[in-house]
Write a structure and sequence with these properties.
With 178 residues, the chain is an alpha+beta fold. 37% of the residues lie in helices and 11% in strands. The strands form two sheets. It has a three-stranded antiparallel β-sheet, with helices on one face. The protein is elongated.
Length: 178
Amino acid sequence: MSKPTKSRSTTLTNWNDLPSDTRRRLLKAIAVTQGTDEFTRRDLEESIDETDLSQVVDDQSEIVVRTKMLNKLVEEDGYLTKTHQSDGVPFVLYVGDHADPDDPLTGLTPSELSRMVREVLKKEGRGNASVDHIDFRYMGEVCTKVNMMLSDTVLIIVSDPNEYRLRKSALSEIRNHI
């Protein structure tokens, strides 16, 4: 169930006063792909990947979608409103071919992630692989590097994502610059 949250900024930062082209580029992408519909960071990333935005942004590969950036567009600039605040603790889940649904393999802390990765690599036939290049403090890095090592998505981060919506007044403002 969504918990509504209130944004801190109720007025829009002037378009030309936004602190970076990165924010303007992201806002244009949100306007085109989401309009005023509710979305999560992952929904937005998928929509951007599936949409040709060459008519509205100078370089689509330069669109940065990060939770921190979305939160700044809520709290500092007033373009987005946060409609749901995540209340769950994210964790890493093994979803590979050898995963046991009755005994899921998960990790949260760096030591748990290190143990989990070693076990996953054994299950996937790469038990002797070096993990020295993985910084276990960062779940995203752990998932990315292990998935790259195995050329398959075997680790995912499970979380209850924040949800956002572009304000109607923001959509009108952005459309003036597309």
